[in-house]
Amino acid sequence: MAMYLLKKDEDRTPVYDAAAKWRERCLIHDGSIIWEDESIWTHSNLKRLQEIFVHNPDESGSSFEEKLKKQLHGEPDYMYKLFVELVFVYYLFPYKRSIRFETKLNKLQEIASWKNISINQKAAIFKGLENGLGSTGTFYNTNKFDEISYIILIALHLKEKKIDERQEILSDQKKIKDFAVKTRALIGKRVQMQHVLLHLVMPDKFERIASYGHKDRIVRAFEYITENAKLNDTDEKLLMIREHFEKSYVDENVDFYDTKEIAEKWAPLEKKIQPAPTGTGKQDDSNSINSSFDKFGDGLVFENEEVLIEQVTTAIQNGKHIILTGPPGTGKSKLAYKINELYGKRPIAVTASSNWSTYETIGGYRPDRNGILNFESGIFLKCFKDEKTNESLNTWLIIDEINRADIDKAFGSLFSVLAGDEITLPFESKSGKLITIKPETETGNLETNDHTFIVPKDWRIIGTMNTVDKSSLYEMSYAFMRRFAFIPVGIPKEITSMLMEQYLESWKITDYPYVEILTEIWRLINKYRKIGPAIIQDIARHTIDNEDFTSSIILYVLPQFEGLPIQRIKEFAQDIDSKTEAVIVMEQLNDFINDFFEDGLF
């Protein structure tokens, strides 16, 4: 059986219980899993959703929730309830490192709130969302429209059949697979929901694998088991492979991910999540992730945090350094530290400067107290060697505002090392030997002398770059950029009161009385200049005990508008006064604008 019931004291039984109730009450019958006495999953309701959602895609740049709110506008309560339950089903499979339990509940509550529908999140059914079953990946998280459309079409086409036919389809391995494949053809994309729903409705026949690629790799790895069987279907082959191994693992639940000996056969290069190292600074494995890490925290809230985590881990796994890009105040610097925490690192952190040369970054001769010149390591080389013991280190480097440096001048010969070459510097160590920098070899060349610096294979630079000023600073060469993954850390597409409350909670600002005002102020700020939530935290702390929004706008917001035409800045001030409920003293705002911008400060 492919059920995944218990792992590290995390019981998955509620997931399967919820899936079984959905199968019986909603797919076979017309009921509900949250509002048990109501008929919600009816043919007419699903047909209506097909019209207003599946056949009415919103291709604007808005968030999924913002689009959905427009698509459901004017519909009766039961249509909102149906969509809440659709999203519930969508969230059943992803485990908590893919999508957090709190995120799942918040998304359901948000949809219900549009129609003032109450949800009892203490109900037993919601335990099914807590732990999840497996990883879903970026596409599942960012392509909600197609994944949820698939659920709608599966349910709709089942409802076009009689109850006994529905039961027959949902109880027969070949028929449900054929039904699922034909429905996916209507979507036109390789939605992971096909695999997810097959496992949820028939977990004894279909694996808890959402990835097409993983299924294919497993089948290829164990082809010797199925080669004599006349099977063409991937899922049938997986079942045969499972049954083969179950004969050997009589007392153990066979799992293609968690049964070590099996996983190593089909995924030998994939690193399992291990406890993080203690942060000694010694060389370790960049694939080793802190197993207790499930969100960034520390005042960081991101619209698609799960996607962001996956982008970071995938880039590092693929050998890339990282540059976090985005407007000011989005938490890029904090995020750089959290990435190091994720990998158990204690980084060196610096802010780039236009004055940087290889003297600051690689090193050079510096006089000691007696006037004797000795080689002293620069910023980069300090990451690779303990100057007292000469032990090799793997200290990651955070470079804030990396594009403020002339990259080619500052990185110099380090480019060659990152490309896999060994270089010798024109400097001698105290032992009289020339300084050498070279990449780590497959055997892990840990040389404990004073003149050899080893660049670990898994050493990483985490840089940050404000997109607002990237055009006015140094450009990056192609040779530099191809060694980095540029990961956007943006501003939420839809700034809502619910999102604002999440930020306030993360900042440990409790009982803030002006949430709606703060929300509208941030919306207006971003109408004129994209600025992240850090500035909103400043405003919230300034106004929590009073209502002096005028001073907070002067202190924290207006100086960020440097470079905008003064008329645009005055329009912003007028908007703050007329479009929010904040008490604004316009005379003070206008006086500051005239003094600060018009009379010569900028």
Automatic annotation (TrEMBL):
One of its GO terms (molecular function) is ATP hydrolysis activity. It comes from Sporosarcina luteola. InterPro entries: AAA+_ATPase, ATPase_dyneun-rel_AAA, Methyl-DNA_Rec/Restrict_Enz, P-loop_NTPase. Coiled coil: none annotated. This is AAA+ ATPase domain-containing protein. Residues 318-490 form the AAA+ ATPase domain. It holds the Pfam family AAA_5. Signal peptide: none annotated.
